[in-house]
Design goal:
The protein is of the alpha+beta class and 417 residues long. Helices cover 41% and strands 15% of the residues. The protein has 13 helices and 14 strands. The strands form 5 sheets. A 4-stranded antiparallel beta sheet has the order 9-10-6-11. Strand 7 and strand 8 form a beta hairpin. The chain starts with 5 loop residues before the first helix and ends in a 42-residue tail after the last helix.
Length: 417
């Protein structure tokens, strides 16, 4: 029998429009927005972004990379479960949070073609970075919570000013030389086997596929690349980040500088205009010495970092969203397990509470999220709970268990659900 449901009807209508459209639908880079553009314009944007930093690669390079991966996988007895380098086409996302976006159309080039040895490299690098973070660099931030902890611990906030810097194109700008420096530096503090180094370096050998052609970086060893979309790209940047922090620490007082991927923050106490300008030049020179470019601002009392805004004048932090980014949630009538749908408002409440310094700042941010919940069919309002202090929990490893979760279907009755 025919059942009328507004959510399902809207979904069917949207799917029909998407299938009938002759235009390309492009995702935004850091927001939930989607954009339509003519196919010719999309192809040109992809081509422009590819040819800017890539050149045509020789055909034999593809087989060489696969053979090297096979030999490394054999040594770890993984060759029977790893695929060859996938020939996945590159794509772009639109940076709609950038100024003058509609006239400029800045893009991020995503390369989904990646060697599966990157999965092994990710595990190795994660362990190394965690050890470095525990031993010396807690300000190599992992998430918003660690940034908040750093901000809360700043004494006499009203006497400080922020230094804000952003590494330009961190992933593609990471060179083989810089990675080798970061690895050599890390090896003075933690044990890294040469076999692990070989895996990390091999995972950087990458090719890009676009417009039916195979591409490599224009540099001397063009197969070296830290791509957006690689398994271990974030971990590579964090490893380089520890090296960067070791160079920046002498410029600031204890724990006064921190880094999250390509976003950096530092504070200066009682800094004059001359002090701030000198810090700006010194920080810029550090990055220039390792081949990276940055944008940097000094003498700031309020900054936006990740999904919070921090104010040194009044010591407050509050939720922040990038321009053009409107929250959107799974509809309450969607085909998801009831426990998932039930916990969405509670999860949003916890998240908003954790990034709000007080109930007052929470209530100021709440309407945007309550409207988004209401639009998705949730009647419940968000509720404030005081942020708990972060405590490190020791992980208790349990025996390996493989769980099977059958696909959820509300029309099916199952006594075990």
């Amino acid at each position: 029998r025919h059942v009328s449901d507004q959510v399902q009807d809207t979904t069917k209508k949207d799917l029909k429009l998407i299938k009938q459209s002759q235009q390309v639908i492009v995702k935004a880079d850091k927001t939930r927005n989607l954009y339509k553009m003519p196919q010719e314009q999309y192809r040109k944007l992809v081509s422009d972004n590819v040819t800017k930093t890539y050149k045509i690669a020789p055909d034999e390079l593809y087989d060489n990379i696969n053979m090297e991966a096979k030999n490394l996988a054999k040594k770890r007895k993984l060759d029977d479960r790893m695929e060859t380098l996938a020939r996945s086409e590159a794509l772009i996302t639109l940076k709609d949070h950038k100024p003058n976006f509609h006239n400029n159309l800045p893009c991020r080039l995503i390369n989904p073609a990646k060697t599966e040895m990157g999965i092994v490299s990710k595990a190795i690098l994660s362990e190394v970075v965690n050890m470095l973070r525990q031993r010396r660099w807690p300000n190599l931030w992992k998430n918003t919570s660690s940034v908040i902890d750093w901000f809360v611990d700043i004494p006499e906030k009203d006497k400080h000013t922020f230094v804000v810097f952003d590494i330009v194109d961190f992933y593609p700008s990471t060179t083989e030389t810089l990675l080798e420096r970061a690895l050599s530096f890390a090896m003075t503090l933690v044990d890294i086997d040469q076999a692990d180094v070989d895996v990390i370096q091999h995972a950087r050998r990458s090719l890009l596929f676009a417009n039916g052609k195979m591409w490599m970086k224009k540099e001397k060893d063009g197969a070296f690349d830290v791509t957006m979309g690689s398994y271990d790209g974030a971990e590579v940047c964090e490893l380089v980040g520890t090296y960067v922090l070791s160079l920046l620490e002498p410029l600031f007082s204890d724990r006064a500088v921190g880094l999250y991927r390509d976003d950096g923050l530092a504070v200066l106490k009682n800094a004059t205009g001359h002090d701030s300008d000198r810090a700006r030049k010194e920080v810029s020179n550090v990055f220039k010495s390792i081949g990276l470019k940055i944008t940097i601002d000094v003498n700031k009392k309020v900054v936006d970092c990740l999904d919070i805004s921090m104010n040194l004048t009044n010591g407050e932090y509050r939720p922040y969203r990038k321009p053009n980014d409107t929250p959107m949630y799974v509809h309450a009538k969607s085909n998801h397990p009831p426990v998932i749908l039930k916990n969405i408002p509670a999860g949003i409440s916890r998240r908003l509470s954790n990034i709000s310094c007080s109930e007052e700042t929470f209530q100021g941010a709440a309407p945007l999220y309550e409207n988004a919940l209401a639009a998705s069919g949730y009647p419940k309002r968000v509720e404030y709970t005081k942020r708990a202090e972060t405590t490190r929990r020791n992980r208790k490893r349990r025996r390996d268990v493989i769980w099977f979760n059958p696909p959820f279907q509300p029309q099916c009755e199952d006594k075990h659900r």
